[in-house]
Inverse folding.
């Protein structure tokens, strides 16, 4: 994969196979389809830390998903 000492990969692989854990699929590319628009439902503005354990610009990630994220950033308060 990427870096030999990637903290995100090491941490996520520890939880591979743990049912209902957000890292259940380990470090495999996983798109959470409901997440991009989640901020639009919030009543109060919030600061959002995006992609702490992932890569929005992963080479296998679809451009349409990235566009949805940026669309939400433009629309959210």
């Amino acid at each position: 994969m990427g870096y030999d000492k990637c903290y995100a990969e090491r941490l996520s692989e520890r939880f591979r196979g743990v049912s209902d854990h957000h890292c259940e699929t380990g470090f495999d590319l996983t798109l959470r389809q409901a997440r991009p628009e989640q901020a639009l439902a919030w009543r109060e503005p919030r600061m959002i830390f995006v992609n702490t354990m992932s890569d929005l610009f992963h080479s296998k990630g679809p451009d349409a998903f990235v566009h949805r994220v940026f669309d939400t950033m433009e629309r959210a308060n």
In short: The two ends are 36 Å apart (CA to CA).
